[in-house]
């Protein structure tokens, strides 16, 4: 009996959708725009994460030590650095390791190699390389490192470039998120209004049936349910459409992102595939919830028992 | 069966559609409620089907106090009271069969029962040969018969006919009244709300006359006195 009622409710919902096809189409289109903007927010979030990761890999806060620094002084400094909040690892790079790394990085630069040979000895100093837990921690770590003046073994430190880069990255990421959130909220608000209007029109189109249903004793649930089902139908079609549109979009975006971030680890399609159920499932549930609220308001206002 | 006890229905700003209205209707009765327009007849109908609530007083249907019926109880009330209106309220895009079947579908009946009951009630009202016609393909009288069939599918104890002959010529009107009498003979209480003098006088049944929201006359075998 319940299944039969559900089947009839779905039938009436589909009738509503069909009878007001153009209104339904506009409603689904607006919903698709909203979902597209939400997905774009997910992309922005993913890109920021990847960019941050890529920067984190490249940033190393180095403290250059005196060439004749005693081992116990270096160890004491290393221990102190490790105790700074936000620091995950402090590694010691000896003079020889620094030279090896420098030579390998500048293998193709003949003039530098020539200069090194002319100097005749290793001109590089040993250093301590500090890695912070997260990008946000670097600021705190840099501030803490700036206060390490009592250690005479430190010859130099320069974090200004990192500080600027980190600040601008954080600013851009936060600003982009804010803009996309605002855009998403605008679209969601528009969606609520459009769904409300679509259901209102569906109620108007169905007013005779509703009148007869009330007259012959259809339950309130049965009268109202098709409009709620229609709201869920809008969400379902909206999510299907956004999947169909969004995948080609991220396929197109993918190669540009890889070269823009200068890293091969960006796999936007893989990310969406890996989180398919969560991303689109949550979007379907969220859209259904919003549409059901809009639909309920319209039904409550226009379908009097 | 139905009791109105000192019922008042007030509409702002200053209209008492029913004013201390009292009426008792016994099971199986055929009752005509007459009165001029705006005297409270339709308000009485609306109160009976839960479309409006009384401002004061008490309304009983059987043992059920429907004075302050809750919204979720209204559908069950309406399944016990079949209602017929002057403007038919048939769905134009559905055949007569589908119109009657619709009343059962929306109340959750299974298809096999619908396929059994709908032809029976359509036969009862004399439409067995026109069940697949659309409302605009049959006469006004036949449309009203289909509406009566629709009202009967739930086997209501009460049939409430609000001006059922208002849009019909005298021959079709007489047919509808005959049909209502036939239904009444099966034990259904029939309340005929009308201001058709000829019909009321020809019925020779109980007549309640309303004026200004009050019962001014209640005759066992009555006549149209206005």
Automatic annotation (TrEMBL), chain A:
Domain ABC3 transporter permease C-terminal: 182-297
Subcellular location(s) of the protein: Cell membrane
TM stretches of this protein: 21-44, 179-204, 225-250, 270-294
Residue ranges annotated for the FtsX extracellular domain, each copy included: 61-148
Biological process (GO), any one: cell division
Cellular component annotations (GO), alphabetically ordered: plasma membrane
InterPro entries in alphabetical order: ABC3_permease_C (IPR003838), FtsX (IPR004513), FtsX_ECD (IPR040690)
Keywords assigned by UniProt, alphabetized: Cell cycle, Cell division, Cell membrane, Membrane, Transmembrane, Transmembrane helix
Pfam families on file: FtsX, FtsX_ECD
Keyword Transmembrane (UniProt): yes
Membrane topology classification: Multi-pass membrane protein
Family: Belongs to the ABC-4 integral membrane protein family. FtsX subfamily.
PANTHER family: CELL DIVISION PROTEIN FTSX
UniProt protein name: Cell division protein FtsX
Organism: Candidatus Falkowbacteria bacterium RIFCSPHIGHO2_02_FULL_45_15
From TrEMBL, chain B:
InterPro entries documented for this protein: AAA+_ATPase, ABC_transporter-like_ATP-bd, ABC_transporter-like_CS, ABC_transpr_LolD-like, P-loop_NTPase
GO cellular component assignments: plasma membrane
Species this protein is from: Candidatus Falkowbacteria bacterium RIFCSPHIGHO2_02_FULL_45_15
Domain ABC transporter: 2-226
Gene Ontology biological process: cell division
Protein name: Cell division ATP-binding protein FtsE
MF annotations from Gene Ontology: ATP binding; ATP hydrolysis activity; transmembrane transporter activity
Keywords tagged on the record: ATP-binding, Cell cycle, Cell division, Nucleotide-binding
Coiled-coil residue windows: none
Family: Belongs to the ABC transporter superfamily.
């Amino acid at each position: 009996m319940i299944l039969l009622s559900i089947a009839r409710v779905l039938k009436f919902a589909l009738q509503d959708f069909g009878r007001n096809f153009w209104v339904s189409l506009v409603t689904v289109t607006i919903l698709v725009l909203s979902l597209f903007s939400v997905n774009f927010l997910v992309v922005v979030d993913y890109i920021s994460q990847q960019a941050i990761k890529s920067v984190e890999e490249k940033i190393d806060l180095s403290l250059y030590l005196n060439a004749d620094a005693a081992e116990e002084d270096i160890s004491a400094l290393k221990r102190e650095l490790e105790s700074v909040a936000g620091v995950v690892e402090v590694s010691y790079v000896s003079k020889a390791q620094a030279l090896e790394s420098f030579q390998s990085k500048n293998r193709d630069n003949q003039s530098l190699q020539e200069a090194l040979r002319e100097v005749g000895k290793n001109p590089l100093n040993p250093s301590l390389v500090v890695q912070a837990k997260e990008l946000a921690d670097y600021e705190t770590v840099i501030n803490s490192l700036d206060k390490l003046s009592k250690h005479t073994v430190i010859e130099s430190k320069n974090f200004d470039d990192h500080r600027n880069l980190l600040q601008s990255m954080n600013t851009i990421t936060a600003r982009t998120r804010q803009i996309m959130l605002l855009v998403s909220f605008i679209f969601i608000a528009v969606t609520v209004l459009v769904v409300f209007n679509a259901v209102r029109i569906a109620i108007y189109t169905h007013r005779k049936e509703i009148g007869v249903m009330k007259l012959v004793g259809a339950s309130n649930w049965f009268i109202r349910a098709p409009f709620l089902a229609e709201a869920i139908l809008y969400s379902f079609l909206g999510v299907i459409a956004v999947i169909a549109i969004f995948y080609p979009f991220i396929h197109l975006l993918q190669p540009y992102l890889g070269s823009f971030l200068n890293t091969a680890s960006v796999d936007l399609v893989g990310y969406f595939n890996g989180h398919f159920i969560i991303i689109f499932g949550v979007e379907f549930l969220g859209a259904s919830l919003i549409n059901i609220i809009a639909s309920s308001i319209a039904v409550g206002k226009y379908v009097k028992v | 069966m139905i009791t109105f006890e000192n019922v008042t229905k007030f509409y702002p700003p200053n209209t008492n559609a029913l004013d201390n209205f009292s009426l008792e209707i016994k099971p199986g009765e055929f009752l005509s409620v007459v009165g001029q327009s705006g005297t409270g007849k339709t308000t009485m109908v609306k109160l009976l089907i839960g479309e409006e609530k009384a401002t004061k007083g008490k309304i009983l249907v059987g043992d059920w106090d429907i004075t302050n019926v809750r919204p979720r109880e209204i559908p069950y009330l309406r399944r016990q009271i079949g209602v017929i209106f002057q403007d038919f309220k048939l769905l134009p895009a559905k055949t007569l069969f589908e119109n009657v079947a619709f009343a059962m579908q929306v109340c959750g009946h299974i298809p096999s029962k619908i396929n059994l009951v709908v032809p029976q009630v359509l036969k009862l009202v004399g439409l067995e040969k026109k069940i697949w016609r659309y409302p605009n393909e049959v006469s006004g009288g036949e449309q009203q018969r289909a509406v009566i069939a629709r009202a009967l599918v739930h086997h209501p104890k009460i049939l409430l006919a609000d001006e059922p002959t208002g849009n019909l010529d005298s021959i079709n009107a007489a047919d509808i009244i005959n049909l209502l009498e036939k239904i009444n003979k099966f034990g259904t209480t029939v309340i005929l709300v009308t201001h058709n003098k000829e019909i009321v006088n020809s019925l020779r049944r109980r007549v309640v006359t309303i004026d200004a929201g009050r019962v001014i006359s209640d005759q066992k075998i009555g006549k149209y006195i206005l």
